[in-house]
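User: I'm curious whether this sequence folds into something compact or stays loose and floppy. Could you predict its structure so I can see for myself?
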Amino acid sequence: MVLPMSEIKLLSEWLNHDRPEIPWQTIDKLSAYWQQKRMVYPVGRERTTARCHCDMDHEEEVFYPQGKPVILCSYTGCTREVSTTELRDWHFDSSVFVRHLGELFQCKGTPEEIIGGNLWSLGMTAHRIGGIPRDVYFALNLGKDSFNIYERLPKDGTQAILISGSSQMQYSDHFKADHVFSISDILSFAGDRLELNIDAMNARLGLPVEKKKKPKNTTGSRANNVKKMLAEIIKEISGAYSHYCNQNYRDNGSQELYPRLTFEQLGERVGISKGTVSKIFSEEDENGDPAYKELHIMWEILGSKAQILKYGMTHLQNKQKGR
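Assistant: Here's the prediction. I'll summarize afterward.
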């Protein structure tokens, strides 16, 4: 089950601010995943005071009855249990996030920082997005210093895509707006892990229109192949006829049959595959008869010694005498 992207949007909203600190209220709404991956982490020591929620705008000392942090308001006497995240300062580690984003995109190589702390090249994707492999760039805050960010991107941005950490994004006339994505557009949680929504990116980028290949005119090539096959079969019949004539001339009682030509051998001689030879022999006309009758007749002759001798005496004897 894919969960709502509220965490991604929450993080994206906070990245609009130009500072690394993330308020504990935001951390409390994020799952443990972010801390496990070290994308957000606590800094400094745990504080000993916490801000009270009354109207007096003050802090109270933290104490631990039953092991849980609590403060007691000195004005109202009310107690409040304090979140452990409230007692720490939290930072977002953009370099860890960038590495993880590169893994989600399956980019080749390692991320390269282009503008310190704000722009990285993740490399080229190993798979297609919008029909082609993409050069992926990540800007932590595209609402800040966007001119310099776009200046460092490829001038021909047809293959590049730009991912923004911040929800606020500025665009450029020199880079296609539909090639710019916020993390909240493309990331979601699936179970306990982040998932990249390639379908959403494909829908935005569109798939390149492939030129339709003109269908090959197979009629001419098929007729040419049939002509070559027929010539090879007749040549083979002539060879077989000579073989049997020599047997009779020697009169040594040999009954050795001339080796039968196979579809594979015929295809090799003509320059086509065995499968193509088989298809040609299998083709039928509108009446269900063989499409190439002469080819079938000559092939049947080649399969019989008696037929070879009969054909040879009628069609080949005079030719061989004239050699």
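Summary: Residues 20 and 91 are 5 Å apart (CA to CA). The chain has three domains: 17-92, 94-205, 218-321.
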